[in-house]
Records
---
Amino acid sequence: MAGALPAGRILLTGSSGQVGGGLLRTLASLGEVVAPAREAMDLAGAASVRETVRRVRPRWIVNSAAYTAVDKAESEPELAYAVNAEAVQAMGEEARAIGAAVIHFSTDYVFDGAGTHAYVETDATGPVSVYGASKLGGEKALAESGAAHMILRTSWVYGAAGKNFLLTILRLAREREVLRVVGDQHGAPTWSRDLARMTAHAMVQCEASARGRELVETMADWNGVYHAAGAGETTWHGFAAEAVRLMREREPAVRWAEIEAIATADYPTAARRPANSRMECSKLEARFGWRMMDWRESLRKVLDEL
């Protein structure tokens, strides 16, 4: 995909995070990526966001940064909203002013998780946590900004590096005899690299359709919300159990912990989690021809990298 984008910078936020790290490597094949450090672009301050966009003047803004401390957000709502909503509003308004397009990552937490079906993009939202509400606020702010945009809702992101559920489970499974993991929250793990590759693929398709036209003009055909989570479904317990089972095959000499399922009620947290995080991703596949990787397949690939 080298040189796939016309002249113009990509402003990437959150490059030190789980999603952003994968994006930093993947988007480099498309053009010049500007990935300011937190000190250079303070997402808790809208003025800093605006100044950065005006200075960089990107063609694309890819916003993978977020306040993701789900439980802490219950006691820090102002900070959560500043990063997850107000900063996104600033990006959208500045992007509209210069004709840039915005790709923004959101979350399954915008839903209440009460249903039993896989959510589609048009289902009613109803977050049950400050984190979820702040992310929904960001979605609405971007949509109302008038900027060309795509909102990518994803879930349970993990990879071979950084801090995530998988790496924590594997570490603890080496240290303990038994691990108790919530087994009544349903969803699908999403490999950060698959998410990054999908993002690049979507950008290339948008640019291909923009030949001879302004990006904002052609983005009218692509604007909106897309679900982009791993295919298949499991629970946190199922994810952990499968990871440990595969590691037993790889390292039979290690004494791995037994993985026991517990109810959400047995593991109280400050913030409520959606019991149902299933997301239907057929719109993404129909629009961009991209099918997200099944979580079992991606898990094997990630374990091969450890």
---
Amino acid sequence: MLIEHLGKAPTVDPSARIAPTAVLCGDVTVGANASIGFGCVLTAESGPVRVGDNCVVMDTAVLRGVRGHLLAVGDNVLIGPRAYLSGCTVADNVFIATGVSVFNGAVIGPRATVRINGTVHIRTTLDDDAVVPIGWIAVGTPAKILPPSAHDEIWAVQKELDFPAYVFGADRPGPLGTIMPDVMPRYAGALQRHVDDRPLPG
């Protein structure tokens, strides 16, 4: 389904395949010979989404463009099922496996591989040809690639990346605090921009 959002409609190369249950919303561009699978969502929330030529976005993957960070995928990229990409840049010839998460401001270099359930954190740069093993986390620039058991080492880098401020414009709360009462009303309100979305014919 193609949906117009804030006056912008998806652009799909005639040679691309879009599964009938995929949703493309807003300023989304899909390149030549690309394939967008069943249940995928490509949504230009507050920034555009660009998918290059010969890309395969497998079933149920979600790609989101966000404020200040378009989502840009190069050519010859595979994005596995259940992957979640938000406001990141993916270079040519990258393999992103099942269940991978890639967050705002991340950059994945050419020919890199992120294996099953791997994570590339906000503001992280993954070098050319890098490999994130199954379930591991890449964090920082240049990226440290660490197992989930290395929580303290991951947090030492992640804390400085300041997820609350970078993604939500919120100050990090104290040890017993939460950003949720501040962030969620604003976030839910911003998503009201979809109220006037318009499904396109065809």
---
Amino acid sequence: MARLNIGFCFDRTYPSHTILEFAQRLDAGNVDQLWVIEDCFYTAGITLAAAALARTERLTVGLGILPAVARNPAITAMELATLANLAPGRVIAGIGHGVQSWMEQMGARTRSPLTTLEEVITVVRRLLRGKQVTFQGREVHLTDVLLDQPPAVVPPVVAGVRGPKSMAVAGRVADGVVLAEGANPTYVQRVLEQAGHPRDFRISVFSSMCIEEDRRTAYTWMAPVIAGWLSGPSPSIDAHTHADELRERFAGGGEAALIDMPAEWWTELGAIGTFDDALAHVAALAAAGVHDISMFPAPELAVGRAQLEDTIRLAAALR
């Protein structure tokens, strides 16, 4: 089993200045990672990451995720190299397709998001390794681009993707993947198969968190979240051990029916229930080969602060 890193996600809705509070508390609490969430049009991942890295000593900061087309890949590589030189060995770069409706809004949607992602990750990784890059692809065009200050410690570039074709791309050109909430051990194994079982492939996971003394309280809080996952396509839900029964339950009784699901069904969905349930969720993902597990909090800042403390307790219990 690979060494497991525990982290926390900085929700896109949190005021940008609170990144300093969260980063410093995680650093002091010996939590391994902080992942900043870049969604359009909230807060910018590179800026948040730089602030967090500058105010901490040991915390690794992950970018979850940079849309491939939001920046020119040469600029993406330059920014990542700057972060990596600011805090060597403490950066994980997540790059994904981006939500296509958002890309459309800002005039950046490409004909083939899949091809674009492959080309962007390919050239970014080459540039980060100090190579001079000339690349004439379908979507990416670079001529003799060379970073003046490539990173001394090259950060891993992981793909934030979901579909099987995207997983195959990640297996060919990325250092790993970052998986959204709802990931379970079966889904992790499916992802590795779709990626082609590449060597030294990093699996980072965001796990929804809701820890309460009483399981039913946690389940009641989280039922609307799970209902949202069930209302659209979800590869992680499809891989759930009881996927069919889960969908039937939701179709027949809505959110209320989810609250009464067996505890083990909930444990597959996230760090949801009691503290021991959260530990069981993390242990199952670690046994499946996951390297990084970061707790995804509620969007309410006060709740997120409490969940940050839960994450510190969780990290301490796993050491």
